[in-house]
Design brief:
It is a single chain. The chain is of the alpha/beta class and 297 residues long. The chain folds into two domains: 210 residues, Spore Coat Polysaccharide Biosynthesis Protein SpsA, Chain A, CATH 3.90.550; 79 residues. The chain is built from eleven helices and eleven strands. The strands form two sheets. Strands 1, 2, 3, 4, 5, 6, 9, 10 and 11 form a nine-stranded mixed sheet that branches. Helix 1 packs parallel to helix 2. It is 41% helix and 22% strand. It is globular, with a radius of gyration of 19 Å. It starts with 5 loop residues before the first strand and ends with a helix.
């Protein structure tokens, strides 16, 4: 039987210090043949620091793909996916350190052809639950267990994805959700609506130190992008008439209570043409209802 081939994709922007510190751990995991890792790809998103020079000098075995201009997280991951040769894509943020055997328990789970993606196990985190509350999609951590568990979404910073399904889904939505936030939730939800499975593996351990450069950006800006993308996610993916009516009511109440939220709505409305186009495709391709998905979590 042919071994499943794994490509590791690491999107990077201005994280020279993290690459120097953490790439050795990824290389160590590659040396463990049970992980089936055939390549490590770092996609540099036009970093002004010395990231590319560092990689070429200290880690020549790592494949480096460079963006000429900064295009955001989703675009970097999509570039890595297109470049990759593996059957599975392992997405790792630059601040995520995998254990040497981190894929050993995960790879057999992909024998089920209906499994699209699997979340790796970060300390103090577990599988994700999702709910439609007060007209909005909310998500949080489920109760930690020692068994493999269904999950509402798979992290784009520490997750494993089946490449051919990724490509058929169109990867992460860089047109609507760049530069960051909700892109992995969006991809996961689209997969669930097509009937695919998402799992969380408690034995696939990684350490996430949360040192990424997003923490260096202004908090207000980051918060606005997060809230804008939450709206885009709902308008694009929630196709149930009942839930949409609840969303309109919830959106009206939120805007009345917090007039400043109008700015978030306007930011999302600026992309309405592309949102409606994507929504039309989701309505056409979905096989599972929104209500059925939320009932599982």
């Amino acid at each position: 039987m042919t071994k499943t081939k794994v490509s590791i994709i690491i999107p990077s922007y201005n994280t020279e210090w993290l690459l120097e510190k953490n790439i050795p751990h990824v290389l160590s995991a590659q040396k463990n043949e049970k992980n089936n890792i055939i390549e490590i790809i770092v996609v540099d998103d036009a970093s002004p620091d010395g990231s590319v020079g560092l990689l070429k000098k200290k880690f020549p075995e790592v494949k480096v793909v460079q963006h000429k201009i900064n295009r955001g997280f989703s675009s970097s991951v999509n570039t890595g996916a297109r470049t990759s040769k593996g059957d599975l894509l392992v997405l790792l943020n630059t601040d995520v350190i995998p254990e040497r055997d981190f894929l050993v328990s995960t790879l057999p789970l992909f024998k089920d052809n209906n499994v699209f993606a699997i979340s790796l196990s970060e300390k103090d985190y577990s599988w994700a639950k999702g709910e439609f509350k007060n007209g909005f999609v909310e998500h949080g951590a489920g109760i930690k267990t020692k068994k493999v568990h269904d999950t509402f979404w798979v992290s784009g910073g520490s997750g494993v994805f089946r490449r051919n399904y990724w490509m058929s889904l169109g990867g992460m939505d860089e047109k609507l959700l760049s530069p960051f936030y909700w892109e992995d939730l969006d991809l996961s939800y689209r997969a669930l609506k097509r009937g695919y499975k998402l799992l969380w593996d408690p034995d696939a351990r990684v350490l996430h130190k949360h040192e990424s450069t997003i923490g260096l950006l202004p908090k207000k800006y980051v918060g606005r992008i997060r809230e804008r993308n939450q709206l885009i996610f709902i308008w694009k993916n929630i196709t149930s008439p009942t839930l949409i009516r609840k969303h309109i009511i919830g959106l009206s109440k939120r805007t009345l209570r917090h007039p400043g939220y109008v700015r978030i709505v306007m930011m999302a409305l600026s992309k309405i043409r592309w949102i409606l186009r994507a929504r039309k495709k989701e309505k056409k391709d979905c096989k599972v209802s929104d209500e059925a998905i939320f009932a599982r979590f």
